[in-house]
Design a protein that fits this description.
- The complex is a heterodimer of chains A (about 260) and B (about 260).
- With about 260 residues, chain A is of the alpha/beta class.
- Chain A is about 35% helix and about 25% strand.
- Chain A folds into two domains: about 180 residues, Rossmann fold (3-Layer(aba) Sandwich), CATH 3.40.50; about 60 residues.
- Chain B has about 260 residues and is mainly α.
- Chain B has a single domain, classed as MetI-like (MetI-like fold, Orthogonal Bundle).
- In chain B, helix 3 packs across helix 9.
- The chains are: A alpha/beta (about 260), B mainly alpha (about 260).
- The interface between A and B is medium-sized, with 31 and 24 residues.
- Chain B: Its main location: membrane.
- Chain B: Keywords: Cell membrane, Membrane, Transmembrane, Transmembrane helix, Transport.
- Chain B: This is ABC-type nitrate/sulfonate/bicarbonate transport system permease component.
- Chain B: Belongs to the binding-protein-dependent transport system permease family.
Chain lengths: ~260, ~260
Amino acid sequence: MSHLLVDHIVKSFGPNEVLSDLSFSIEKEEFVTIIGPSGSGKSTIFNLIGGIMTPDKGIIQLEGNNIIGKRGSISFMPQTPSLLPWRTVLQNVLLGAELQGKKDRDKAIEMLHKAGLADYVHARPEELSGGMKQRVAFIRALLSPQSLICLDEPFSALDELTRLEMQKWLLSIWEDYRRTVLFVTHSIEEALFLSDRIIVISVKPTKVAAEFEVPFNRPRDESLFLDEEFLKWKRTVTYSLKNEGSDNDGEANRRTYSFRSI
Amino acid sequence: MNFLIRKGWRPIAVLILLFILWEIIVKITKVPDWLLPAPTMILNEIISGWTSFYPDLVSTSKIAVEGFLVGTTVGLVVAVSLHLVPWIRDSVYPLLILSQNVPIIVLAPLLVIWFGFGLLPKIIVITLTCFFPITVAALDGFKQVPYSHKHYMLMAGAGKSQLFWKLEWPYALPSIFSGLKISATYSVMGAVISEWLGAEKGIGVYMTLASSSFRTDKVFVAILSIMVLSLLFFAVIVAAEKYFIRWQSKGGNVE
């Protein structure tokens, strides 16, 4: 049984069909990335899984249980860190668990130490850099008791160097604390570097356009970015996104060219 | 304290200069005392009349604090219910603004007719002047909660009360304190007005007696005491704010 099953989801806002017949699934402890141009309804997918919105049609199941309209079934890391400024780092990372009524202070302190935030346990978010804030937000998601973590373009607001640092950091932490991860990004390299599987979605209406198993062994390090095989894969995924674009309007086409390349 | 001295000496110097100027003008033009007393005369009255004025001061302070507490409670309850129940906000908010358009001076005799001369009409007057700034400030604070924070809380499964107590209430606290500061100074004014309705003692009574007997120096004592009392209330709220909201002091870059 898949950990998360999204089956034939349809969602429209008024006359706009945002998701038409979207289906995918994630296995336990798998790292899956959804990649697609901006405006392809990625946030809508999260809002549906998170239970903030309900689909017009289709099935969403977590470990076999229906979670349509049920909030709090997943743990979430948003695009902006969204840390509460009046709480210390420690109190912030405990927030997700606190909402579910299960706090583990010692584990939180241990994880903050592992994450290189030992000096900032009792600091307030305003004292942290952008990258550190995102680390705190990720640990908050890891400490939440839910088994599936959804990450919504968590590194898109960071600069290039910090982003690479964060990607490596995320992998190392994830390899220590294995969880099922659903990651959304619009960077092909980020997707290839991090995930086990990549799901490419098309824009308007949103559906799965292609799926790739990423063959690289773990643990991975940054030398992978220059690997021949990696570049070949990057080309393949880029083409699949571009083909998606050519079927649609010119705007979508332009979007695919704006993808980051080092 | 050092900060106060560094920043505070300019206005204090200006104030002293004004007093000196006032004293000189009164002395030169020989204005009669009942028209405009000299500052030294007012000072004399404060010192010599202190024992008889003191009970009035205490009475007004007490009623102002009581009215302020009731007004704050009402203001917060109104704000929270308006925030949590949208249909109440839509139907009641315009009426709230209307309630502020009725001058308290006009309302006061009505309150006496309905509730007599006791404590109740006085508390109502102060509450009416106090609650509105708090309600508006709190509602504003609740509205300013960033969407990203709210979205995270909802995705993480926060219930309505968790959303309120863990996010919206603490987020609105700085705004609420802005409202409290305004209300604190209003409460003294409200207390004095309420005493004009009829009371045995209080700054309002003292003022009425003083002006009807042309003791202008006493009127100035009353005005001065109202100002000092308001300032004191304000300072207490600022101190409370500093204590409760330490997180905003460093510029408050909220993300």
